[in-house]
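Technical annex, item 7. During the second reporting period the consortium partners agreed on a shared format for inverse folding records so that results from different sites could be compared directly. Each record opens with the tokenized structure and is followed by the designed sequence. A conforming record, contributed by the partner at site C, is shown below for reference.
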């Protein structure tokens, strides 16, 4: 059950299976976005703490360590044990997530259940990682081995804290890597709780390390550390570029980046307007619009445009905004004051540039960071709200005339994370799916992210893939071995 008074047990840095203070002794506050008030003081890690965490992770990765000597099936069993502990403490994790992030408790519980499934998916893959035998020329036996990269740094965002942790821990641990993770400074609570669960599950000392702190300090130390062999990051394009540069200039570490989006959702003239409006509503307002794949560019055919705008407005006005722990709430606060003001700024710019504010656009209540679900009509491609990632509850409804036109306009962006189309015409669905430049494409649905399918973006939406077997490959090296034989066999 939801617990708005959930005890916060873990506030320190987790290194080598122990909770410790920051070397500097510094702390920072994590805030409840529903109230704007402090939840807890968290140990503030920086370079010195990252160095200690990397040393622990390196020791855990030496060839003779318990972790490296462990059977792959045993690694899978540990991941499964961790998932059962998450299941046991699901209410605690969901309550912490709602307190720290502001998402409604049912949504937080949905994330917890999804994270459990992610851990179990990778638990099942741990002993399925294998190489190939290769029919090489001459008297040689040639084969490949898949080996863990080593110590990996992982930097996760604040919008889906527990889900993003599971997306990164799952494949890294299944592959046999050791981890130094930095959670977002806005939302460290579930990562620290998961650190405690990893110890309870039985992961050896140093395999999992969690260093809360700020991006330029703790995050910068991870991305530039010469002993970290891969860095995985989810967040903004701006920070992704900084991390990629640091990875290149330090030790040319591997990089996977899951970055921003300005995703198009195309509503065709043959679509059922009520059904299409509901898909679009969920696609943009999920998680208070704080979603990298949010379909914030809603392209609607001119023949049904006015009717669609009317239905979209009705849905947005009916959306219940408020306390994440209150029954019936489906829309919580924005993450913090900075994001709150940024979104309000975009709403103001949208009106100044001539978009029609259909509904919303105002703040809600006298405390916390609540903003009404907002809809703009008569949006053109050159407007700021149609080009930049707002990361808030703002839907831009754009008129189009033909599918070819919609495809060209959908692709006219530096992003390419996701896209969708609503149509009853299979030819339109396939044409769009094949032509649109996006890593995930959904037909007559949206947000259909599954553990088994790779997730990532084209263009500036990222490098590499999360989830599926593709994510696992990102934590592995491929080694070719050739053995000379007395004769060709």
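Designed sequence (site C submission):
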């Amino acid at each position: 059950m939801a617990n708005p008074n959930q005890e916060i047990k873990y506030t320190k840095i987790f290194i080598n299976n122990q909770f410790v203070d920051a070397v500097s002794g510094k702390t920072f506050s994590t805030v409840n976005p529903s109230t704007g008030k402090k939840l807890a003081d968290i140990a503030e890690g920086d370079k010195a703490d990252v160095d200690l965490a990397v040393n622990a992770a390196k020791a855990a990765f030496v060839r003779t360590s318990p972790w490296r000597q462990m059977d792959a099936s045993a690694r899978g069993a540990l991941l499964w044990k961790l998932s059962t502990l998450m299941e046991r403490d699901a209410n605690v994790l969901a309550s912490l997530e709602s307190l720290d992030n502001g998402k409604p408790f049912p949504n937080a519980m949905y994330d917890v259940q999804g994270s459990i499934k992610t851990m179990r998916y990778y638990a099942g893959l741990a002993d399925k990682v294998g190489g190939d035998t290769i029919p090489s020329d001459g008297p040689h036996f040639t084969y490949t081995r898949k080996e863990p990269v080593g110590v990996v740094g992982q930097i996760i965002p604040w919008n889906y804290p527990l889900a993003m942790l599971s997306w990164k821990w799952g494949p890294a641990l299944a592959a046999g890597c050791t981890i130094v993770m930095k959670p977002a400074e806005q939302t460290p609570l579930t990562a620290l709780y998961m650190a405690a669960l990893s110890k309870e599950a039985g992961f050896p000392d140093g395999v999992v390390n969690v260093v809360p702190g700020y991006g330029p300090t703790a995050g910068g130390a991870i991305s530039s550390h010469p002993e970290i062999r891969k860095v995985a990051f989810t967040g903004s394009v701006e920070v992704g570029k900084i991390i990629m540069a640091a990875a290149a200039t330090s030790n040319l570490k591997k990089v996977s980046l899951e970055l921003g989006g300005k995703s198009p959702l195309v509503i065709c003239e043959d679509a059922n307007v009520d059904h299409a409006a509901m898909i679009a509503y969920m696609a943009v307002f999920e998680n208070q619009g704080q979603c990298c794949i949010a379909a914030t560019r809603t392209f609607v055919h001119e023949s049904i445009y006015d009717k669609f705008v009317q239905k979209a407005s009705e849905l947005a006005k009916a959306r219940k905004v408020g306390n994440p722990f209150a029954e019936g709430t489906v829309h919580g606060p924005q993450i913090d004051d900075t994001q709150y003001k940024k979104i309000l700024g975009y709403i103001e710019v949208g009106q100044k540039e001539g978009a029609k504010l259909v509904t919303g656009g105002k703040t809600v209540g006298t405390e916390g960071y609540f903003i009404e679900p907002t809809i703009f009509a008569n949006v053109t491609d050159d407007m700021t709200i149609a080009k930049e990632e707002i990361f808030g509850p703002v839907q831009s409804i754009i008129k189009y005339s033909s599918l070819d036109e919609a495809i060209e306009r959908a692709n006219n962006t530096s992003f390419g994370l996701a896209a969708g189309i609503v149509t009853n015409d299979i030819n339109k669905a396939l044409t769009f799916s094949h032509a649109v430049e996006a890593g995930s494409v959904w037909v007559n649905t949206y947000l259909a992210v599954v553990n088994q399918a790779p997730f990532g973006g084209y263009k500036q939406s990222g490098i590499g893939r999360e989830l599926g077997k593709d994510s696992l490959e990102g934590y592995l090296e491929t080694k070719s071995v050739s053995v000379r034989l007395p004769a060709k066999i």
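The two ends are 64 Å apart (CA to CA). The chain has two domains: 13-259+462-479, 264-443. All partners now use this format for quarterly exchanges.
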